[in-house]
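Hi W.,

Here's what went into the run:
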Amino acid sequence: MSNDLKIVFGRRYRFAASHRLHSDQLTAEQNFRVYGKCNNPYGHGHNYVVEISVSGTVHPATGMIVNLVDLDEFVQRQVIEPFDHKSLNHDVPAFHATVPTTENLCKEIYQRLKHFPLAKLERVRIEETSNNAFEYAGEEMRDRMAVR
Amino acid sequence: MVYLTRKIEFSASHLYHNPALSADENRRIFGKCNNPHGHGHNYTLEVTVAGEPDPVTGMVLDLKELKVILEREIMQRMDHRFLNYEVPELKDQIPTCENIARAIWKLLEPKITQGRLHKVRLYESPDIFAECYRNGASQP
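Here's what came out:
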């Protein structure tokens, strides 16, 4: 039976942005101890790679869960345009009061994409550098992980 | 449970065309993927098998055996082929990443008898992929 098979479509996007890790709830010394050079006062940047996975029915007429032109357009509008070549701390309202770690960036991008009307958002994975990756699949993730 | 993944690469050509649609609709939906003589990709396939390591060998399954299965079931069928015309498992389907991943799942699942097939991930390019796994399967 192929009905119990799940098919996921994934696509990777890129944007470049700066951030500074600093919490107003910590003292200057604590900030430096926790965030190290990421706390340097004027911030620094990354080339972020964002991997978006969506699931749904593979439409027989097109062989596709979603036409990537439609997904690209949505991600472009919701994420790339507001984030690319911006300061996450200054230019993204969600990070005025929240530290723009890549953990929080995953959650923010998830929130921005979860209402994509043409397929179900499965997860957001961000590579901050080629050595650091973060993933968020909504709060259901906890339940899915527990199945294992 | 331990998950092991083996990666293979194959090159193949394809085109997207649905004969039930008009030429204009095909062009509108599929864009340049509808070009009449097709185009090609270097596909990367990641096959993940889940299982408990055998207490004697320490293996979920022998990777050499998985290599032979992938060579026989996937490489010989799809490598350097035109997917629309030469791969019967994709007959009457648009050979999108989604459909190829599902066809690969169906080919491999019955052949993997040590451990069980957990996930298939097929990259059409480094930025486009599809995955196939059982509904409700645990991650990864």
